């Protein structure tokens, strides 16, 4: 009997192996028990959750040059929204979705910034969550923490990171993070990198109505606590310090808005084993939720059309 | 308006007296006329007596009002365009006040109690001034306080012990509450930004840039030299370390040092000579978001300085934790071990206590130090003032105080040298 049972189970497995399980991000076929997609390294849990719960999560991306603060922003956003019981709440789906929040909060509470996101896609943190809103339908979202260097590598050499291309093609909206103090200091790299990213998005293949010209783009100046006037009028700040980006957005993106956010009230540097690292002197988040809220509203507006 | 009314009333009673005499004489009813005239003169006399010799009551009236107001918001007058300014109102109310009384009203009682000035006060005035000081400031007794680095909680026990330093703090008074917009308004309206003697000479060029949204001298978030309506009793924010210092000088006080601030909040008890027992928060060792205005306490901004009374320190200082960070006179990083020193582009000043938007409770406890550039004018940094015991006269222990002045000076020098060395 036992032998028969084993045989039956093995047969079932063999049968399951013959049916490819498509990755939710790139659509590539995988074995049903694969942890990561063998094509793009996105977690297969996303596909399993979508299939088992009959969900079709939308995708939002936080992109920006290396060091712009994507990890801190996403970690802080998820923690803020998962703590409050107000109009906007975020509930993680799956343990892997909490990892980013956990790592970021553990570091910030000890007055450290989280470690830099590695370039290898299989080590990125993905977040699948449900966003609950008062008097509105809940939204399922997937938001990965992409590495800034990988993003720029993909922009400069398309298809280096298929996962980035596949993900951004399917994205419904994007948060473009820009380092405000660097922009204010006149480092034109910040402007160029962001222009490249916007340009890359606009060139992605899409149907006419679903192209990036019509998608909402939140342009978020990070670390604004180090240049306080950025909070007063982020659009004016953008005009002064990132003129190329402003022009490109004005001409090529219909729906965009400027925001300023800050997480650390002040920053210092400490000698670390790998050299000098920045450390937050305290944590006082400002303006974190607003860009995300705006994106959701824009997505609603687009859906209602 | 009030003056005109008084004048009309006085003239009326005089005219009535004269008229009744004339009419009585003309009509033959001179007894009735004389009676009315006499009554009118009596009324004049009563009015004169009311206006007259009540110097004691006049002296006490504003002070009593100030002391007895349970929450300043109850009697506070907001500053708006269509109402008289605070300056005008106070001038009307206290036009005849003595200088001493005026100084008490403006919270500059510490200046009155300076030994040189107090000698010229009457015993009554001295008593009132001392009561005002006791009411406005909490006592922090002298003793040792353990100063710990920022990373203390993350260190292993042995290393943590080595990084802890005992510092002796002389007895002092510390403001029970952070300085409010209303208090700071007195400084601004009193020409504090023009009195260059209040400002460090090195900072004179920057004083011109310490302006509000409309370019008037004042904190960053004010407009036209005024604070926002309804914010009278909120802590003043948006001012630099130098503005805090200038105000402190104006009221005859100073900013507390880092060790003084920690001593007031952690309230060390010397059960062990090597390591005093200290509180993690002013009210005890565990965080309770109902006792302080930090992130998650249900307020999105500052609250009046007299709220959260249940979170008071042992000596009655309110909101040492939460609401706004507080400037201290010490440099940032003074207590960090050499291996974990934090570098910054410009030297920072130490700020303590956390603010309404401080996210982690680990960053608002008594020992946590953060820093800000002295010229920063942030939305969540305010201050409170301190005053050494021996900077003011004390009737009860006047003799002891003077006797120990020399000793105190020596210790203070020693203390500041120690802090400078550690910085």
In total, how many beta strands of chain B?
A: 10
Summarize the amount of helix of chain A as a percent range: 40-55%
| Cα Rg of chain B | 27 Å
Number of β-strand runs of chain A: 13
Q: How would the blueprint of this fold be written?
A:
The complex is a heterodimer of chains A (305) and B (423).
Chain A: H1 2-18, E1 21-22, E2 29-30, H2 45-52, E3 58-63, H3 70-83, E4 88-92, H4 99-109, E5 126-133, E6 136-144, H5 148-156, H6 162-170, E7 173-179, H7 180-184, H8 188-203, E8 217-222, H9 229-232, H10 234-241, H11 243-252, E9 256-260, E10 262-264, E11 267-272, E12 275-280, E13 283-286, H12 289-304
Parallel strand pairs in A: 3-6, 3-7, 7-8, 8-9
Antiparallel strand pairs in A: 1-2, 4-5, 5-6, 10-13, 11-12
Chain B: H1 2-27, H2 30-51, H3 55-68, H4 72-75, H5 86-93, H6 99-105, H7 109-112, H8 115-118, H9 123-136, E1 137-140, E2 143-147, H10 157-163, E3 165-169, E4 172-175, H11 181-189, H12 204-207, H13 241-250, H14 258-266, E5 325-331, E6 342-343, E7 349-352, E8 369-372, E9 381-382, E10 386-388, H15 398-403, H16 405-422
Parallel strand pairs in B: 5-9
Antiparallel strand pairs in B: 1-4, 2-3, 4-10, 5-7, 7-8
